[in-house]
Backbone:
């Protein structure tokens, strides 16, 4: 009798959990089509919703042209360097379009995405804190040479209309607003309370020009991690703020990518005038009175134990 009672209790608890498990009302998962570059070019000029990345409101959730690696980052709120899984997870791309159930809000979407990945891709994972090599961002011997910002960053009001030519995508901690200047091969990314960064790529000199505005030291480290872990041949290590410094700063970096990427292609040269001021990242930060040192630090890792390449049917 006791055994039956325990079995019945376990079944009831599982049934309640299943009912409470957050889930989209309906969702479709499909392989993503190649991006239409002509449409992207028109969108960059006119502004609007970027047809890649997450876009969620209180009724609809879209995750467009995203890899499973990207989707895990959004669902569990982790950074790219925290996810350990098969290499193909960063290659295959999907479009997910889902409807949130009545009464749900945007903040419920990540857990619903978790349920979808578990149900449709059979994803099984666990989290563990392990010692990993990182790059510690520290104050150099001569002290900081950064310019203190005259202002403070303003959080983004997601209900405010987009400015002409402005694009939007959802980030880990809120909306990111983007302006792209295709003619100059540059983009301005507004992270709201974390500050802003303007990035200009020069494919001929294999360098990138970065201008940070109203950034905290933690934000500076996070933005640098984002830039250099996503580039082909990037440093692949988290940059951790170890300066112990508060305040908001403006900073400019000209970083050579030659030590992270393949040899220059035909017609490209490091002797162009623009390349003269570009330095490897470890040297470029020294111009700001900072330094990068190899350290180890406890990093929370999201480890994929099992995942299927093909999702179950819609």
Residues:
């Amino acid at each position: 009798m006791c055994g039956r009672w325990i079995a019945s209790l376990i079944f009831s608890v599982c049934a309640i959990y299943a009912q409470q498990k957050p889930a989209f009302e309906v969702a479709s998962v499909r392989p993503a089509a190649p991006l239409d570059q002509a449409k992207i070019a028109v969108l960059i000029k006119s502004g609007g919703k970027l047809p890649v990345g997450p876009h969620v409101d209180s009724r609809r959730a879209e995750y467009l042209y995203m890899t499973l690696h990207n989707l895990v980052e959004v669902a569990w709120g982790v950074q790219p360097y925290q996810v350990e899984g098969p290499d193909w997870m960063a290659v295959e791309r999907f479009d997910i379009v889902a409807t949130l159930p009545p009464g749900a809000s945007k903040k419920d979407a990540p857990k619903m995405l978790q349920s979808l990945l578990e149900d449709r891709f059979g994803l099984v994972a666990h989290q563990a804190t392990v010692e990993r090599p990182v790059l510690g961002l520290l104050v150099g011997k001569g002290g900081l040479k950064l310019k203190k910002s005259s202002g403070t960053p303003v959080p983004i009001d997601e209900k405010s209309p987009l400015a002409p030519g402005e694009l939007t995508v959802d980030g880990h901690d809120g909306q990111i607003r983007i302006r792209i200047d295709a003619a100059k091969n540059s983009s301005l990314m507004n992270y709201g309370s974390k500050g802003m960064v303007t990035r200009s790529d020069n494919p001929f000199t294999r360098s990138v020009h970065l201008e940070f505005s109203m950034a905290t030291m933690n934000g500076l480290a996070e933005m640098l991690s984002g830039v250099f872990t996503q580039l082909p041949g990037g440093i692949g290590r988290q940059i951790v703020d170890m300066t112990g410094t508060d305040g908001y700063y403006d900073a400019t970096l000209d970083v050579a990518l030659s030590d992270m990427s393949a040899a220059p292609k035909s017609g490209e040269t490091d002797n162009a005038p623009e390349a003269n001021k570009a330095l490897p990242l470890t040297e470029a930060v020294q111009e700001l009175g900072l330094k990068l040192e190899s350290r180890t630090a406890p990093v929370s890792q999201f480890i994929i134990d099992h995942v299927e390449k093909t999702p179950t049917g819609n």
In short: The two ends are 42 Å apart (CA to CA). The helical segments are 2-20, 37-46, 68-76, 109-120, 217-230, 281-284.
